[in-house]
Amino acid sequence: RLNLFFSLYRLLSNSYTHIVMTRHPRSFLTLYHLTDRPYALLCVVCFAEVISMLSFAAWPLFLVKLQPLWGLSNFSVGWVSGAYFIGYVFATPVLVGLTDRYDAKYIYIFSTLIAAVGAFGFALTAQGFWSAAFCWGLVGAGLAGTYMPGLQILNARLDDDHRLRLLPYYTSAFGIGTGLSFFVMGWLYSYADWTSAFIYAGLGSLSTGLLVSAVIRPQPVKNESDAPRRHPLDFRPAFRNAAAMRYILSYGAHNFELFAFRGWLFAYLIFAAGYYGVQLSAEWLSGLISVMAFIGMVASVYGAKLCLSHGRAKMISRFGLASFIMAVLFSLSGHISFAFVLLCAAAYNITIMLDSASLTAGTVSKASLQDRGATLAVHTMIGFCGSAAGAPATGLLLDLSGGQTNIMAWSATLVCMGLGSALVWMILRRNKFS
Fold first, then answer.
1. Digits of tens for pLDDT over the chain (434 positions)?
2. Is 221:100 a contact under the CB 8 Å cutoff?
3. Which of 85, 146, 222, 316 could form a disulfide with 388 if both were Cys (CB 3.0 to 4.6 A apart)?
4. Terminal CA-to-CA distance of the chain, rounded, Å?
């Protein structure tokens, strides 16, 4: 059934492309020739990723307004945040696994429609926990079909040399998307309502699908050998790949920390500013988080370069240890001053992001060509299981230890986030598979 559905979808997409090329052949071929160049292709795919993530910060920011409006506990808020990644995890086996059989371009376009439906649905129908969680989960499912399939678009169109050098830039562009989302949603937080914010997010997803449809040349899927084709939902080759699994498990621990941090940072900074009597606007704080996200992207690229020079597994384990130490300092900063809170938040953001691109690059480097889609599917499933667990687990701890108005509760929550990096350090401290 999946094969029939995607074959029909590919036929319709190719028919649409043929009609457009017939009417506007020169402009269409010019765009296709542009993306035949590795760096131009990278720019287009990274730009598409950034715009497709416009919705990313919508819930982490607007939860501050919607939590009291809907009467949600911190645990419930955490689960809505986690629903985004639950949707991601459930969609990944299908959407990413199918890239071993079908051109990832078509999976990408289809997924932007899923994300748009989720964002529009949130804007028009969300009225409480269940409706918000369902719609936010659809947005996460859309991300599942754009993030890793975007990586597969590059994998299928780049040679080995360009792939090793350019993939860290793509994975780091996730940070640009995060930063832009916080910036735009922070502005909307102050000057528009939450309904408008989610509608703009849906429009971003739709525009991304149109861009990829118009600019990326279709590419037939290649196989490394004449072996029988793996079923799109058969992930056993990935689990048998011990070298890749070390990076995959580390990615799950990394995402637990990263998305717990991103999910609660805005709320924590608002609390810390109020705790010390500092008057700051919401757009100022969201702008600060945007800048931190951009800095995190630079840190991710720099960390990837260090890994290429000094050994990937060894450096990632060191980054994990440094990030855990920084998490402890961040947890203590709230007892000192608001300025120290901001300083530690910025430093913690950098240490978290140092290994972000390198973990995915490590998985790609250990995956065979014919099973790369399956390996990336397992990579993203386990990774975003960690993402889904991060915000609810830390939200539950926040509730149990005193609530969001208690400085000690926040300290415990921040230390809990850092356990993700501690686990990365433990998994990769032996560099046998570097």
1. 445 454 555 555 555 455 444 554 444 444 555 556 777 888 888 899 999 999 988 988 888 889 889 988 888 888 888 888 888 888 877 887 777 778 888 889 999 999 999 999 999 998 989 999 999 999 999 988 898 888 888 878 777 677 667 777 787 787 788 888 888 888 888 888 899 999 999 999 999 988 888 888 877 766 544 445 555 566 677 778 888 888 899 999 999 999 899 888 888 998 999 899 888 877 788 888 888 888 888 888 888 888 878 888 888 899 999 999 999 999 999 999 999 999 999 999 999 998 887 888 888 778 776 677 778 778 878 887 888 788 888 888 998 888 888 999 999 999 999 999 999 999 888 655 55
2. yes
3. 85
4. 40
Residue 316: CB partners within 8 Å, gap ≥ 6? Answer: 250, 307, 355, 358, 359, 362, 424, 428
Q: Which of 338, 329, 314 is nearest to 424 (CA)?
A: 314
Please identify which residue in the block is written with the tokens 């071929």.
Answer: 29
Sign of CA dihedral 290, 293, 295, 301: negative
Q: Which residues contact 109 (CB under 8 A, 6 or more apart)?
A: 13, 209, 212, 213
Q: How crowded is residue 12: how many other Cβ atoms within 10 Å of its Cβ?
A: 11
Which residue pairs from 67-73 have beta carbons closer than 8 angstroms and sit at least 24 positions apart in sequence?
70/127, 70/128, 70/129, 70/132, 72/128, 72/129, 73/399
Residue 53 φ/ψ, nearest 5 degrees: -95, 15
CA pair distance 89, 142, nearest whole angstrom:
11
Return phi, psi of residue 161, to 5°.
-65, -50
* Cα radius of gyration rounded to whole Å, the chain: 21
Q: Among residues 208, 155, 153, which one has the least CA distance to residue 180?
A: 208
Contacts (Cβ under 8 Å, ≥6 apart) of 105: 153, 212, 213, 216, 218, 219
- Please give the model's pTM, rounded to 2 decimal places: 0.69
Whole-angstrom distance, CA of residue 361 vs CA of residue 172: 11
In the chain, the largest separation of any two C-alpha atoms, in whole Å, equals 68
